[in-house]
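can u pls check wat happens w/ GLP
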Amino acid sequence: MEYIYTSDYQAMSQMAARWVAREVLRNPALVLGLPTGETPIGMYRYLIRLVEEGLISFAETCTFNLDEYVGLGPDHPQSYAMYMKAHFWIKAGLKPENINIPNGIAPDLAEECRRYDAKIEQAGGIDLQILGLGLNGHIGFNEPSHNLAIRTHVVDLTPETIKANARFFSSMDLVPRQAITMGIGTIMQARKILLLVSGDNKKEILRKAVYGEVSTIVPASILQLHRDVTIITDIKI
Ligand SMILES: N[C@@H]1[C@@H](O)[C@H](O)[C@@H](COP(=O)(O)O)O[C@@H]1O
């Protein structure tokens, strides 16, 4: 694991954007795995700036989002599809046919998971997967558990994650209890992984993920087994 420490959130975001830009310059047809959450917003903003300055282009890039809430359609304000439209997809200049995210309102969710995996496979797998870190150590929505699913699946969110997600909803009752997420296998098969972590409230969980035992109880600890992980963070551990 390569650990890049930056002084604060802005520096982390800028460093992450440059790091991703370098990968896109090397391979404009990159298959890019994308996260949501608060952490990557700054990186998305810097990446869009690089696009606007004509320094990089996502015109040939294909993207796969990590996850989506079950029950929220792409036009729901709190859906991850809406988040991506607001923060990245449109201004980054991605072609609509190159954008992928699980459909949280698919009539047959198991079939939707299979379709998503097949699409990732068809694209040749993920070249670069960008990840955030949940407060309980989840990546994507792979929650702490005794067993981790390998492929895209429907997951019951833990009370801790539901509580953490509540900040984006007007009432606790509206917070989705389930999500569709890429599995740990798909994430681990990405050729490169970039993990972004910000804020001292994640210090303990980051320490466990990086130095702790590899355990399904801290899903991010599995990343210790991947051969090409870079962590960009403003947390000194
Ligand atoms: N499913 C997402 C994760 O992909 C994200 O990494 C995590 C951390 O979010 P934040 O960056 O807001 O702390 O939140 C959600 O649960």
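Residues 35-39, 66-67, 132-134, 140-141, 161 surround GLP (CB under 6 Å).
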